[in-house]
Amino acid sequence: MNIQVNQITPRRENGEVVGLEVYFTGKNADQSINLNGFVPLKKGEFEEFLQFEEAENIVRQKVVERILNGESPVE
After folding, report:
1. Please, are residues 10 and 52 in contact by the beta-carbon 8 Å criterion?
2. Predicted confidence (pLDDT) per residue in 11-60, tens digit
3. Quick check: is 62 in a domain?
4. Which residue of 41, 44, 49, 56 is most buried, as measured by CB atoms within 10 A?
């Protein structure tokens, strides 16, 4: 079964990420089975592979760079 993650949506409480909804699509080798949905992850299940604070810091820096450099947000 080939599974591809399409979207990761954080769930927050008081500004803190307390869980994720991981949306996916999937199909088997001959494509006779197609599926989609989401899997909820609770705190403690995702921090090892995904650090939202780090990702937000990177996004923040890139936004600042684009603003300071006068770049269009769409390239």
Report:
1. yes
2. 999 988 899 999 999 999 999 999 999 999 998 998 888 888 888 899 99
3. yes
4. 41
**Residue 42 covered by a domain:** yes
31-61: buried (b, 16+ CB within 10 Å) or exposed (e) per residue? eeeeeeeeeebeeeebeeeeeeeeeeeeeee
The pTM for the full model equals 0.72
Kindly list the distances between the CA atom of residue 7 and the CA atoms of 22, 32, 47, in Å, as whole numbers in the listed order: 6, 23, 16
Q: What angle do CA 65, 74, 23 make, to 5 degrees?
A: 100
Structural domain contains residue 74 = no
Q: How many domains does the chain have?
A: 1
